[in-house]
Amino acid sequence: MEHIISKAETWLTDAFDTDTKQEIQELIKTNIADLNERFYKNLEFGTGGMRGVVGVGTNRINKYTIGKATQGLSNYLHKSYPNKKIKAVIGYDCRHDSKWLSEVVANVLSANNIQVFVFEDLRPTPELSFAVNHLQCDVGIVLTASHNPPEYNGYKVYWNDGGQIVPPQDKEIINEVNHVHYNEINFKAQKELISTIGTEIDEAFWQSSLQNGAFDIKGRDGLKIVFTPLHGTAIKLIPEVLKRAGYDNVFIVEEQSKPDGDFPTVKSPNPEEPEALKMAIDLANKVNADIVLGTDPDSDRIGIAVRDLAGNMKLLNGNQTMSIMTDFLIKDWEKKNKLNGKQFIGSTIVSTDLVSEIAKSYGVETKIGLTGFKWIAKMIKDHPNQEFIGGGEESFGYLVGDFVRDKDAVTSALLACEIACDAKSKGSSFYQELLELYTKHHFYKERLVSLVKKGIDGGEQIKEMMNNLRDNPPITLGGEKVICIYDYRSSIKKEVTTGKESTIRVPKSNVLIFETENGAKIAARPSGTEPKIKFYFSVKSKLNNIADASKIEENLDIKIQQIIDELF
After folding, report:
1. Any idea which residues carry the catalytic annotation?
2. For the CA atoms of the chain, what is the radius of gyration?
3. Are strands 476-477 and 480-487 parallel, antiparallel or unpaired?
4. Sign of the CA dihedral with 510 first, then 516, 521, and 524 last
5. How far apart are CA 376 and CA 381, in angstroms?
6. Which of 233, 430, 458, 464 is in Cβ range 3.0-4.6 Å of 306 for a Cys bridge?
7. Could you give the 3-state DSSP secondary structure of residue 15?
8. Start-to-end C-alpha separation, the chain
9. What are the φ/ψ torsions at residue 411 (nearest 5 degrees)?
C-alpha cells in the first residue's frame, strides 16, 4: 500500500489544482481502499480508447489524465508530421463532464500549436468520424463513454482516415503519453487556434447519410416509426435525416428526447438491453408503429424492434440486424449491376457467420477482424482497391458505405426504415425478410452472457477464467464434440481431432473461440472498455419453411441454455 500512497502523493505537487490536492489528502486520511482503486493502475487505450470513472487519480478520467493523453498525442503528432500545419477536430456527447473535458483537450492541443475545430454542442460520434475527413484533419477526438453508466466518461482518438487508432499507432501514442510528466502538460490555450463548428458539418453529414442510406423505394409516408435517443446525441441528427428522406410518421419518446447524462429513465442507456427500449415499445404499441429505433448516448449503436408474424413487437439482436442490412445492401448493388468481384463486407470474429453465408451467396467477400469497429475501418483503409459495401458487429453497430469510419447509428436508422418500408410496400415485413434469409441459409441464434468483475480482484478473476479455459478447454458443447479451438492470443487455430495447428492471420488478442462439429460456437473475451468478461454463444439449424421458425428457435434456445449450463 505504501507505493499507492507514494503514487498518490505525486498529485500533491504544484502541477495540480487546489481542489484535486485537497481530495487526495482526504482520501489518504480516510479512505485508503478508494485511494487504491484510483491509483493502482493507469488508464490505457483499449478496444474503444480510454474509458473510466470520472474522478481524481491515475485510474480515473479527469483534467490531468485527459491532459496527459492529449499532451502525449500532441507530441506524437508533431513527430509524425514535423513540417505540417496539424489540424484536429473534437466532439463530445451528453455526459455532464464531456463539454468541459472537450475544452481541456482543445486547450492542450492549441497550446501545442495545433489548429482545433470544436463542435458547438454535443454531436453523435459518427459525425466526429465524418468531420475528420470532411475537414481534412490529421486527428479527431471524441469525449464519450458510449453506453457505460453515468459515472463514466472516455476519450477516443481517430486518425486522418476517420477510423479509430489501431496498432502500432495506439501503442506508439500510449508510449508518448507514458513519457509525459504531469508538470509537462501545457494547458495554456492559444485561443486564436480554436474554432467552433456546427450546422455546416450537420448539413454535409445529412447529405452523405441520405446518399448512402436512402434507396429507390415507395411508401415512406405509410411507415410508422418510434424513435428514442435514450437521452443522447442522436436527437441532433436522426429525426432530421428521417424527415429529409420522406418519413413523416416519426414518434419520438418525449421522456427520453432531452440529452441528460444521468439517463434518468433507464437503468442502462444501452440499446442492447431490452429494458432500455421498453418505453419506446410501449409507445409503438400505442400508436401501432411498424418499427422502433433506439440509440445509445453517442449514437453509434442502434437497437431495433419490429413486428413479428403475429404482430407483436420483437427486439432484434445485433447479429440479426447486421444480417438483414447486409443482404439488403448487396442486393441493391446487384440490382444496379455494380458487383464485379471487387467489393467486400466487414464483420468480426464474434459476430454471426450468417453474414458470411449471405455475402458468399452473392459472390462477395467477407473480411473478418477482431472485435471493435476500428478493425472494420482498418479494412477499408488497407484495401483501397476494393469497395466497402457495409459491415457490422454483433454489439448493435453497423456502417453503410465508407463516408464514416465508425459504426453509424444515424445512417443505420435510415437504412432500417428503408428495409422496413420496402418490405411493407411489397406485402412483407422486416421480420419476414429476416426469416426468408434463415430459410435460404441457416437459422442462427446467438446469445451474449456478460459477467461483471469490478476492481483489482475482478481483473484477476477474469484473467483466471481465461487461463482456465486455455488450460482446460471443453471437450463437448451441448452434446457436440469440439473440433476447433481458436486462440487469438497465440494466433493458433488447433484442430482437436488431428492436433493440426495453423496460424490465425489477424492481430493478437485475448480471445478464445471453440467450434463444434455441427457449427456451434462459443467465444470468450475480456471487454476492452468495461470490467466484464463476455461469452458469445452461437448455434444454427436448417429452416425448411417459415412456419417452423418458432419451433426451430425454441430448440436453438434450449441448446444455447444447455451449453451455458455446461460451461458455468
Report:
1. 146
2. 24
3. antiparallel
4. negative
5. 9
6. 430
7. coil
8. 34
9. -70, -30
